[in-house]
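Run log, item B.
One chain of 261 residues. Sequence copied directly from the ordering sheet:
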Amino acid sequence: MRDKKISLPAKLINGGIAGLVGVTCVFPIDLAKTRLQNQQGQGVYTGMRDCLVKTIRSEGFFGMYRGAAVNLTLVTPEKAIKLAANDFFRQLLAQDGKELTLVREMLAGCGAGTCQVVVTSPMEMLKIQLQDAGRLAAHQQKVLTQDGSAASTSHPLPGQPHPSGSPAASQRPSATLIARNLLRTQGLAGLYKGLGATLLRDVPFSVVYFPLFANINKLGQKHDEEKASFLHSFMSGCVAGSVAAVAVTPLDGNNQTVQLS
């Protein structure tokens, strides 16, 4: 069956809405994941629940959404690029209206994952820096409490070399401030730091996600021209996304380590 063409504006709207809803729903979990992956034996948090509880206590409810503004701003073009690129490569690899083979579906997903890093890489860089700022502050407070000293073992954000205990050290960073400092000190390459690590994560994710979703979703179609029900498509996305996320979790940890270094 030939994939039906969907206009780019429709793809942009669909991807944007899906991305905004997704970010709003799962961002606190993503924040906990980032902080747990980067505490590196410092023992600030014991688990996801402990991380979220301590975040709310120290930063308030909206502390769980630290860095979300970056995602909410860039998620629409990111999803639009990913979905449009996947459709483009699927149509490019289609042969005389025949269904795509699994290998061709994986190649289409590979192309989509490669294209999306144009937006994903700087978005992840800024988001991770903002998310990890709260962990660094919590670790600094823990050290000060235990040692009764003004010394801090936390490292500054890129482009923000502050001496410990200075007023600037306690200043809450913003995406604009981080981006400006990175551009001033490292140029455009600063925003794309860890591009290779991001590719190693996003390409395998798309290679797994898109073919798996298409094939599971196809099980809900009684006829070739009939669409699967919303519930079936929703569950297909959940299953495909979960499998893909589990598959690339080690690569995600490596990506964050590179971008925070």
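Observations after the first pass:
- The mean pLDDT is 80.
- The two ends are 47 Å apart (CA to CA).
Flagged for discussion on Thursday.
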